[in-house]
Every structure is written in structure tokens, then in C-alpha cells.
Design a protein that fits this description.
The chain is an alpha+beta fold and about 475 residues long. Helices cover about 55% and strands about 15% of the residues. It contains 13 helices and 13 strands. It has helices spanning about 1-10, 15-40, 50-75, 80-90, 115-125, 165-170, 175-210, 230-275, 280-315, 325-340, 360-380, 425-430, 435-445; strands at about 45-50, 95-100, 105, 130-135, 135-145, 150-160, 320-325, 345-350, 355-360, 385-395, 395-400, 450-455, 460-470. The strands form 3 sheets. It has a 6-stranded antiparallel sheet, sandwiched between helices. It has a 5-stranded mixed sheet with strand order 8-10-11-13-12. The chain has a two-stranded antiparallel ribbon with strand order 7-9. A hairpin with a 2-residue loop joins strand 5 and strand 6 (about 150-160). The radius of gyration is 49 Å and the shape is rod-shaped. The two termini are about 55 Å apart.
């Protein structure tokens, strides 16, 4: 088999031709071996009790012929054995076999299928009435008669009611049998080769198209199969979809970053130009320099957020996980955010039934909760309350942050965690945000096998929920 593989690999055959030739070679070998075994196990003639119907016919016919032979002898006419057999076949639709006891020669139809019967009768002495079961013929005999002072035995041969198609095949020449086997095996192997090669060729073409940048390439139809090819097709489609989503997301992120960086850079350039125009005016210079410092800080914050988001999207490690009391950690974040909330006279409240523990990265959890809480404070109206609540829901910790702001249109709730997404074009710019806080929070929560989602509350406000698994 290894030699065949080397031979096919050296030839410039397609996958269909290689599979076809390989399967065909295997089938030919199998047919040859089966044929040799069949020759060894072919049907052996068996003797049994004489069939009554055929034995009665044979006795009756032999008696009639004896009388006829006596009449012919009195008239000195020659008795014709061939004519006797022909008359019997026309009258009874069965064959009459005649064996010359002196020479053991058997007179029967001249056909290849009768060679085995002729050989058996010539070498075996059958003095008693028996029925011999050959492959597809029953021979009953023997009845002895005398013709011209020569002794003969008469046998009646009739067909056995068996599979006629098999009988036809059995009587075909060996060359025809081999040709039929080769044709059938070639056809079946070709169908098998096509069944295997068609999905492989489709996967190869789809992979080439995907490699050329056609990210919308999918294996249509093959993913509905229930075999291994169907599993491969579904895996390929899943991989292609994920690849398309990732590349599209990165392209969008790159475009958003470029767009977001352009604004502070333009303001920074403008501020520097104003400084140059007001050289000598200390008060104006200081005001424009302060604007430059603010824009540099904004750029630094945005770049830091982008790097943080990229790191969270491309890493998934639990090396820094430890047991954390989520209530204590949340209280620490609330205290830090309250300092900023005081500038708007916003009060942050924390409610918890009990202390909940989980395995996690302390820095990531602080970053996620503080981003969500700062976002709530940022858009909460003055003199309002932001509520933080910790509860246990179906063996998971649920942390909710609810503000009393204007909320978000329902069709935009799912987009809140997309990098640089804004409900209104100037919303984060006016508030000083980068549009990455909730995206960073989502990636941090995913690192903890949790989920985060937002929903509007009645009569107004937005509630962001963080669901995390309990410590096992």
C-alpha cells in the first residue's frame, strides 16, 4: 500500500482520480481473493433418495422404450440415441441423459454447464435409484435398458427452482464474469471517490478564497451533512465567521481610533498655534498651554484604554486569579467614585444581602466595576442617586448599577459595549470620555466567564447588570 501511495504522489492526479484508483485496486484484489475462495467452496453434488415424480417418469419411459426397441430389433432397424433424447425433451420438457455402461460415456446436451454432470456420471457407478443434486439441476436415475446388445443407464435431469439470476451468472464464461466485476467495481468506486472528493475540493476552494481575503466565503450545503465532512464544514464556517468578525472589528476599531485621535490632535495643533500668536501675553499663553496639557492627557488616556482593550481581547489567563470578597471590592470602588460624584451632588448607595466570594483578578474587576459606575455617575442628573446592588441569582452573583438618567434607546442597548459607540455624536466628547469604558468592562467580565448587559428602567434611567460565577 505504501508503494501505491508513493506512485500516486509522484503522478499529477487529482484527489478524485487518486481515490478512485486506490479503491478500485482494493476492490479488484478483494474480488480476486473472493473468487479463489469461491472456487474452493463451490457446490458439491449430493446424493439423496430418488425423487418419486422423476423416478416414476423414468421407469415408465424405460418400459416404453424397451417395447419399442424390441419392435425395432424385429424389423432390423438401428436405434438412434440422439433421437431418443430429443423426443423425450420435447414430450416432457426435461433432459434424458444416457450412459453407456461399456465405455462409461454419457450422452447429454453439449453445453459447458453440463460438463460437471457428465464427469460425475461417467466416474460414478449408480446401480440404485437416487437423485443427485447439482448446483442448479437434479438428476434422477438410473434405469438400465439394453439396446443392440449394449447396456445403457437412463437419467432424467430437471431444473431446481432457485435464483435464476445467480444461475445465469454461474453459467457465464470466466472472462465475462471478470469483466462484469471490473465494470461494477469501477462504477461503485467512482461514486465513492466522488462522494469523498467533492467536499474536500469544496473545502480547498473555500480555503483559497478565504486566504485571498474573501471573508464572506462559506461552505453552503455541506454543513448540513451528518458525517465527518459536515462537521468539518461547520467548523470551517464557524472559523470563517469568527475571522470575519474579528477582522471587521479590528478594522472598525482602527478607523474609530484614527477618528478619535484626529480631534484632540487638531485641538492641540490649534492651541499650539494660538500660543505662538500670543507670545509675550503671559495670561493667554498659560490658558492655551493648559488646553495643550488637557489634550495630551486625553490622548494618553485614550491610548491607554485602547491598549487595555486590545490586551483583554487577546489574552485569557487566570494566573492572577485569587479569592475575592466582592462586597469589599465593590465598596472600595464606590468610595473612589463617590469623590467624583460629589462634584455633581450625586449619591452612590450600595446594598448587599451578604458577602459573596469569587475567583478573579482584582485589578480587572475594579476596572470593570469602576468603568460601569463612572459611566452611571457621568450621565446621572445632578442631585440624583446611583444604586449599586449585589444579589444571588441562580447560583451566580449579580451586580447591578442603576442611574436616574435619560436612558438609552432600546435599539441601541446591545451596541453600548462596542468600542467608541456613542448614543449621541458629542455625548462622550462633552463628558470627557473615550467611548471605551464599557467595552473594557465587557472584556474584563468575559475573562471571568461572566456576562454584562444593559436595560432601561421605569420611569427613567439605565441599569447595567454584571453576572459572575460564585467561587467553587
Amino acid at each position: 500500500m505504501s508503494a501505491i501511495k508513493k506512485l500516486f504522489s509522484s503522478l499529477n492526479f487529482g484527489i478524485s482520480a487518486k481515490l478512485f484508483l486506490t479503491f478500485w485496486f482494493v476492490v479488484i484484489c478483494s474480488i480476486s481473493i473472493s473468487y479463489v475462495i469461491t472456487l474452493q467452496l463451490q457446490h458439491r453434488p449430493t446424493q439423496g433418495v430418488a425423487t418419486p415424480k422423476q423416478l416414476h417418469l423414468l421407469n415408465q419411459y424405460a418400459t416404453q422404450q424397451n417395447k419399442k426397441i424390441i419392435k425395432l430389433a424385429n424389423k432390423e432397424k438401428k436405434f438412434n440415441l440422439k433421437s431418443l433424447r430429443n423426443q423425450f425433451e420435447r414430450k416432457y420438457q426435461q433432459h434424458l441423459l444416457i450412459k453407456d455402461l461399456a465405455t462409461n460415456k454419457v450422452y447429454l446436451p453439449r453445453h459447458r454447464a453440463w460438463q460437471g454432470i457428465e464427469k460425475y456420471l461417467s466416474i460414478n457407478s449408480l446401480p440404485n435409484p437416487v437423485t443427485i443434486d447439482f448446483a442448479y439441476t437434479q438428476v434422477t436415475g438410473a434405469k438400465e435398458i439394453t439396446v443392440n446388445n449394449k447396456s445403457y443407464q437412463l437419467f432424467v435431469a430437471g431444473p431446481i427452482d432457485r435464483q435464476q439470476f445467480h444461475s445465469i451468472i454461474e453459467h457465464l464464461p470466466l472472462s465475462v464474469k471478470m469483466m462484469i466485476s471490473l465494470i461494477i467495481s469501477a462504477f461503485l468506486c467512482w461514486l465513492l471517490a466522488k462522494a469523498f472528493s467533492k467536499p474536500l475540493i469544496a473545502i480547498q476552494k473555500a480555503s483559497d478564497n478565504l486566504g485571498k481575503g474573501n471573508l464572506s466565503t462559506r461552505l453552503i450545503g455541506f454543513d448540513e451533512r451528518s458525517d465527518e465532512f459536515g462537521a468539518v464544514a461547520r467548523s470551517f464556517n464557524k472559523m470563517a465567521s469568527q475571522l470575519e468578525d474579528n477582522i471587521t472589528a479590528h478594522q472598525r476599531l482602527l478607523g474609530d481610533v484614527s477618528h478619535e485621535l484626529r480631534s484632540p490632535l487638531a485641538r492641540l495643533q490649534l492651541a499650539i498655534g494660538l500660543v505662538e500668536q500670543n507670545i509675550g501675553n503671559t495670561e493667554e499663553q498659560q490658558r492655551h498651554l493648559n488646553r495643550c496639557e488637557n489634550e495630551v492627557d486625553r490622548l494618553d488616556t485614550m491610548i491607554g484604554d485602547v491598549l487595555t482593550l486590545s490586551r483583554l481581547e487577546h489574552t485569557n489567563t487566570t494566573d492572577h486569579f485569587e479569592s475575592i470578597q466582592l462586597v469589599n471590592l465593590t465598596q472600595q470602588v464606590v468610595d473612589d467614585c463617590q469623590y467624583i460624584a460629589n462634584t455633581k451632588n450625586v449619591i452612590i448607595t450600595l446594598a448587599s444581602d451578604e458577602k459573596y466570594s469569587l475567583n478573579g483578578d482584582k485589578k480587572l474587576l475594579i476596572s470593570a466595576i469602576s468603568n460601569v459606575l463612572n459611566n452611571a455617575v457621568k450621565y446621572a442628573p445632578e442631585h440624583s442617586t446611583v444604586s449599586v446592588e449585589l444579589t444571588l441569582v441562580t447560583e451566580k452573583i449579580c451586580l447591578t448599577v442603576t442611574d436616574q438618567g435619560t436612558g438609552v434607546p432600546d435599539n441601541m442597548l446591545s451596541k453600548l459595549f462596542t468600542p467608541f459607540f456613542r448614543v449621541a455624536d458629542a455625548r462622550d466628547r462633552n463628558s470627557g470620555g473615550t467611548g471605551l469604558g464599557l467595552a473594557i468592562a465587557q472584556q474584563a467580565i468575559k475573562q471571568h466567564q461572566g456576562e454584562i448587559y444593559a436595560q432601561n428602567t421605569q420611569p427613567c434611567g439605565l441599569m447595567v447588570s454584571i453576572v459572575l460565577p460564585l467561587q467553587s
